[in-house]
Amino acid sequence: MKGISIKDIAQQAGVSPTTVSFVLNGKGKEKRISEQVSKRIMKIAAKLKYKPNQLARGLRTGKTKTIGLIVEDIANSFFANVAKVVEDEADKYGYKVLFGSTEDNEEKAKGLLEVLRYRQVDGYIITPTLNLDKEIASLQKPVVLMDRYFPNVEDFNYVVVDNFQGAYTAVSHMVDQGYKKIAIITTSSTQIQMQLRLDGFVQALKEHDLPAGKNMIKRLAFDLDRPGFIQEITKYLQHNTDLDAIFFATNYLGICGIESIRGLKLQIGKDLGMVSFDDHDIFRLHSPSITCVAQPVEEIGRRLIQLLIEELDNNSVTRAHVVLPLELRKRESTMMRMK
Amino acid sequence: MKGISIKDIAQQAGVSPTTVSFVLNGKGKEKRISEQVSKRIMKIAAKLKYKPNQLARGLRTGKTKTIGLIVEDIANSFFANVAKVVEDEADKYGYKVLFGSTEDNEEKAKGLLEVLRYRQVDGYIITPTLNLDKEIASLQKPVVLMDRYFPNVEDFNYVVVDNFQGAYTAVSHMVDQGYKKIAIITTSSTQIQMQLRLDGFVQALKEHDLPAGKNMIKRLAFDLDRPGFIQEITKYLQHNTDLDAIFFATNYLGICGIESIRGLKLQIGKDLGMVSFDDHDIFRLHSPSITCVAQPVEEIGRRLIQLLIEELDNNSVTRAHVVLPLELRKRESTMMRMK
DNA sequence: CTGAAAGCGCTTACAG
DNA sequence: CTGAAAGCGCTTACAG
Fold it and tell me: Membrane-spanning regions, if any (chains A, B) (predicted)?
C-alpha cells in the first residue's frame, strides 16, 4: 500500500529530501545541484518508479492540478461531447477533471460547488443554473462559464454561442424555404441562452412581417420527462393546425418534436417544416434528416480550457467573453415545402 | 484564499484542534467530550462555514473519497449514460468521480491509471483495454471492471452483460422473422466482449442450420473513423448482395450501418433486416426503427458502485462476477420481411 | 553546492 | 474529559 516517497530516494541516494525535491522538480540547475548527484537521484527515482503524492504536493502548494467541470447533464450528447474535448485539452496541461451534473437544479449545483471547493480544485468550468452568481463569485478561483452566463454580471469569463444569431438564422432559413406560420417550442427557463433564442426567433419573424403573436410561442416546463414533452408538444400541434413549421429551441425538444410529429402522422418537411437548435446524430440520420443550427463543440471545449489555463498559469485576470457563431446545417426537414 | 481551518475553530472555542477534530468527526461521545464543548464547537464551525480540507484529510487517512472512472469514450452515449449513473450513485456515498477516456488505446489507458494512482483515488471502475491486467493488478486498491474483463484472470470484480446471450437472442429473432442469410459486422478487436458476441452469432446460425461461413463475418479495424466504417460496410454489402440481414456488434457500427444501407438505396427491414447490439436514441427514432439488444444501463451503473463501495467500506475482498441479461427490443428493422 | 527545519491541515495514538 | 505531539509526503525560505 505504502508508495515510494521522496525520503526513500533520499536515503538510497545518500542525500536529503530537499535535494531530491529540487532535482525531481527540475530545479537542479537553478539550485546548483551537481550533475553527479542529479543523475544519481534521477536514476534511483526511475528505478523505484517514484510518483509524487499529489495530495501532499497539493496541500503544500495549494495546487491540485484538478479542474471542476459542472455541466447540466453529462448524459446529454452536447455536454458529453464538450466533456470529452475538455478532458483531452486539460490533459495536455497536466490537469484532470472532476465532473458533476446539476440537472439545472440550483441546490444540486450549490452542493457540487461546495464539494469541489473543499476538494481544492484549481479552477472551474461551470454551466450555471439560475441564481448561482453569488456562489460562483465567492469561489476565489479561476472560473469560465459555458453555455450561458449572467447578463448582469460582467465579471465572469464565458464561452457561449451566439444564441440570438443562431435562432435568427434558423428562422430566416425557414422563411426562405417558403414556410410562413412558424412557431417556436422552447422551455419555460428564463435563462439568458433561452431568452436570446426566443428573441432571435421573434426578431426574424418581425423582419419578415410574419405573425409573431403569443400563440406562436410555446413554452414547456423544463422538468418534464420525455413522455411529458411529447404529450405537451402533441397537444400544442393539435390545437394549432395552421402552423407550417416549428423551431425547436434545444436538441432534446427537437427529438421529442420528431416523435410528436410522427405520432400525429404528419410528414416532417412537407406538412410541417422543422429546425432544431443544436445538432445531434439523430438529426443527421433521421429520414427526413433534420435541419439544425449546430454548436461548434470542439471549439467550445478548446476555448474553455484555453481561457482557464491562461488564468491559472499567468495568474492574469483578463475577462474574456467569447461568443462563437453557430452553423446552419440545411437538411431535408426544411427542403420539402410544396409551394 | 486561505480557508477556515480546524485551528481557527479551536482558537475561537478555546479548545485544542484535537477536540475540534473529534467533535466534527462525530466522535464526540466516543471520546467523551462534554455536551457543552461539543455544541460550542459545532456552532462555531457552522458560523465560520468550516469545510474540512480534503487534501489534508486524505494525506493523513489515505482516503480521498474519489473514484477513478476509466471508460472507452465519454462522448459515446453508452458510456456517458453509465457515467451519469455512476456519478449519481457515488454521490450518495460521498464519493466524487475523476474520469478519463482510453479510446481503447493501451498506452492511453496506462497513462490514465498512473495519473489516477498518484492522485490516490480510493477505487477504480475500469473499462479495460487489451493487456491491461498487469497494470490493474498492481493498483492495490479496489477495482471493478465494466463492459469487459480478462478471461484468464479470475481475480477482478466485474459487471458486464451477457454478450453471448445477447447476440444469440438477436440472431434467433432474425431467424424467427424469416431472414436466412445473416451476416455479422463487428470489429477486429479480440477482446472478450466482442469475441462472445461473435460466438453467440455463430452458435445461433449453427443451431438453425444456416450458413455460418467466413464471408458471413466481416471484421472492421476498430480505429477507423465514421466515413471509414461507412465505406467498409458499403463495400462489404456491395460484394455480398445475397445477404438478407445484418447483425451489428456495436451501436456505432449499427449507426454507420444505417448510413451505409441507405447510401445503397436499400430498404432497411425489407431488403435487409438489421439488429444492433446496444440501444441508442437513433434506433428508436429512425424510420424504420431499429431492433436492438439493449444493455441495462441503470443497473450496470448501480452494480458497479455497489460492488466498489462494498469493498471500500468493508474492506472485504469478495470477488463478484456480475453478468446482466440484455433485452431484445423488437422494432421495424426486423418486422418487414416479405415472405 | 547541500541540508535542517518549518509548515500545508488534518487525524489519532498516547498521556494525563 | 481534554490536549500535546507526531506524522501523512511534499515544498521552500533560510542558513551555511
Answer: none
